[in-house]
Write a structure and sequence with these properties.
The protein has 375 residues and is of the alpha/beta class. The protein is built from eleven helices and 14 strands. The structure holds adenosine-5'-triphosphate (ATP) and magnesium ion (MG). Adenosine-5'-triphosphate binds next to strand 2 and helix 1.
């Protein structure tokens, strides 16, 4: 068929769902797993064993089942370890970022949780169902994977593509589902355009519409903005943000740290093993001491005599335009710092709490990994 046709990576939907909708809260249980027509059946070796951890609060503060519970999951290809002993949970309605350098194991994790390949050891529960070969069709019916390459039939129109995939997935209410999916990605007016004539960003949107057709309990997005220009990237970000608003559970792998920082409730940093997991602000706090950045017009004659005498300041170091002061409480320290600088006759340009980006966190961890490997 098309030039760019790829295997669809997920299965038919649950019947009876009439919305591409928010999924905050308990999952529906009336799904009828059906045969996945194209995706090969995985030889999943590991089945149950992990109990859903029920005391994890949901995003709305409720205590509920998690959309994903992953425990000690490992995947090896022969001697090569793709990811090792990975454990985490994702709540319903959460956008969970999965970050890591090239070869960290992100795509392999998605493929494993998506039941496309079997784990080597460990366990996972996906939307309440243990990962196992037997449960593969049931799990695939509840999730969607948007792979890095959109994999559309380029000679078919947007509508024909979606009809084709809805047919492969054996979905009910095809017309309604396609309409809602197209609306969700703002593509209703391009339904009769040939996919080959669409820009990369628009094709990515069609792929997202396809991934929404079955109203997935967990939507896996593997590098959804890879190769897109800033405008198309922003469009995809806006779509993901709108899905987040609607409470869709999203597992997002990305290299783009600003993407994770902006879109994700929590992020995990993977480098074969899981290095860190938490909200971006928690990760910053965990890795960096709190500090205050002081910018002054001219270097101080004797900074130690000024900063060393301040009780809230635990240390200082010069920067290009001033000084960074290690403090336990920036709000308490800043006024005292300002007074001391004014008394010393310094011209203050700014005093502000240091901001560490997720990029700082990531680079610090990756640098530590490189150092550890070179030891
Ligand atoms: N089918 C396979 N056979 C053998 N090795 C594989 C296979 N798939 C992945 N790997 C290896 O597993 C490791 C993790 O690969 P993976 O594609 O999951 O990384 P990634 O984090 O998605 O990287 P990227 O950011 O480049 O997409 C790599 O060393 C890769 O070569
Ligand atoms: Mg990858």
């Amino acid at each position: 068929m098309g030039d760019d046709a790829a295997m669809p990576q997920r299965a038919p939907s649950r019947p009876g769902h009439d919305e591409v909708s928010a999924r905050r809260g308990a999952p529906a249980r009336s799904r009828q797993p059906r045969k996945m027509p194209v995706t090969p059946e995985p030889a999943t070796q590991v089945a149950s064993g992990a109990e859903p951890i029920s005391d994890t609060p949901g995003l709305d503060g409720s205590k509920g089942e998690s959309a994903l519970v992953v425990e000690h999951l490992t995947k090896r290809f022969g001697d090569r370890v793709a990811f090792d002993d990975v454990s985490f949970e994702v709540s319903y309605g959460e956008v969970f970022g999965f970050l890591g350098p090239n070869g960290a194991g992100k795509t392999t994790t998605v493929r494993t949780l998506g039941t496309l390949i079997a784990p080597s050891s460990g366990s996972a529960i996906i939307d309440g169902t243990p990962l196992s070969a037997k449960n593969g069709p049931e799990i695939r019916a509840r999730i969607s994977i948007m792979p890095e390459s959109p994999g559309l039939y380029l000679r078919l129109t947007v509508m024909e593509n979606l009809q084709c995939f809805a047919g492969l997935y054996e979905l009910d209410d095809v017309r309604g589902r396609i309409e809602r999916a197209l609306r969700a990605v703002n593509l209703a007016d391009r339904a009769s355009d040939q996919c080959g004539a669409l820009s990369k960003g628009l094709r990515q949107r069609v792929a997202l519409a396809r991934a929404l057709l079955n109203d997935p309990a967990v939507l896996f997005l593997d590098e959804p903005t890879s190769g897109l220009d800033p405008v198309a990237t922003r469009e995809v970000h806006e779509l993901i943000a709108s899905l987040r608003e609607r409470g869709v559970t999203i597992f997002l792998t990305t290299h783009r740290l600003e993407e994770a920082e902006r879109l994700c409730h929590r992020v995990a940093i993977l480098s074969t093993t899981l290095r860190l997991i938490g909200r971006p602000d928690e990760l910053r706090q965990q890795l960096f001491r709190r500090s205050v950045d002081v910018r002054v017009r001219a270097p101080l004659d004797d900074p130690q005599s000024i900063f060393g005498a301040l009780p809230g300041v635990e240390g200082w170091e010069p920067t290009l335009s001033g000084y960074t002061l290690a403090v336990s409480d920036p709000d308490a320290a800043a006024p005292a710092v300002a007074r001391a600088l004014v008394n010393a006759g310094a011209d203050i340009l700014s005093i502000a709490e240091s901001r560490h980006s997720l990029e700082d966190v990531y680079l610090k961890l990756v640098d530590e990994d490189v150092e550890a490997k070179s030891r």
